[in-house]
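Bench notes, bay 3.
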Amino acid sequence: MDFVLKHYQEGKFDTQKAIDRFNETHGIVQKPCRRVLPWVSGMVAAAAAVVLCVFLFRSNDQQIQLMASAEVQEFVLPDGSEITLAPGSRLTYSKKSPRNTRLEGKAFFEVARDEAVPFEITSDGAFVRVLGTKFMVDAGSSVKEVYVTEGKVLFAKSSDAEGVILTKDMQATLSPDGNVPVVMMEPDVNSIAWQRGSFIFDKTPLKEVLETLSEHYKVSFAATDLDKQLSGEFYAEDLDLIISLIESALDVHIIKR
């Protein structure tokens, strides 16, 4: 914003050219906007047809900030790492050290491998270090969470604290009063549904299915025969369609409220 104000001249300032110059100077590549996931509030969903990809940036003492407001947003860092930010999340890094980052909220990382320079993520109460891999970090609540889909990740409370090593399909959480992350015996594949764009269920009780949907869409449900089990993959674009498919598959009635 300081850059914009500094170079603004009435009738002459070209916003897009200024953004392009900023991106080129700081080595940022913004990926095209993809789907708008409907787990955000009803007001956002109603405006989905006209929602624009949001890219907010700030340059302050060599600090670069990437931010997603009302929708999932993707970015490519100067080292080639791809970052997917959940709505309301932000990632900050130094222009001189783009592999040392700070996360507020939730993000999925596809880190470009560099044997000489590990990629590090810090947040309030969590620390992650990798060389090159794919994983999610949820630092947006009091309980921190890491889910790995590829490679190997170190997850700890801080850079000098004892941690755990997570590999493909492993998940761990760290509570505010915990010192070492706890590895989950049954990882939740739907913890990255917001990034993947679909929910996956395998003989999952309807009660758990609705709890998962409720968490993502921020609505509550009531239903009959909650013990019935559901299997299949359901795309996250349309909640009403998901509910209709579940009702048809399980012969149940679901009320959204």
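Next record in the batch:
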Amino acid sequence: MKKALYLLVIFISLSCNKDDVNAPTLIDLGYEYYPNNEDYYRLYEVKDIIYNDFAQTIDTITYEVVEVFTNTFNDLEGRESRELHRYEKRNGTNWVLKDVWTSTKTQTRVEQVEENQRVVKLTFPVRAGNEWNGYAFADLPEEDFEVHSLKTDTVVNGISINEFIEVLNYEDENILERRIKKEKYGKTLGLIHLYLVDLDLQKDSGIIRNMWIKDTGFNFSF
């Protein structure tokens, strides 16, 4: 009896080990870096440094921007998409709708229509070193976006972020101009930081923008 029980235990143990070996490995494709559920919002604080050659001034402007994923619809290819409503608020005034963009998230990429230009924001799976033409579907010159790094553990405006990536959109500098655009995406949060430089070095004009996430959730209260 004891021998039979011993053999049964061995059989069960081997069966479990076999199941473990054959069990599919779950691969993190990085979809959580771009949540776009309906009614999901992200609130940002923005600081613009504006160089005005004509007026010979350098102005610093701070304000808030909130992005809200709203109406769900199917695009011309039948893919589920969402409207992305962007509101702006300055100096204690009321929220003003500034843009209506669209967002389409597929199994392989994220497309976001900004100012009538379709930009590939991310590709899946998300990996450090990934490169793609961010303007593949836009009427713009080809631009190689790249996931520069994948980092862990940071805090932005009191929001704990376990994992985030930095995506370099472009970085060009010469005697005529300086152009930089970098975006950071936090897991389960989406875009957490935008850094933009667009300067005409000959005229000393242009803008430097920093946009940091301030709050996030569902059903934003205006």
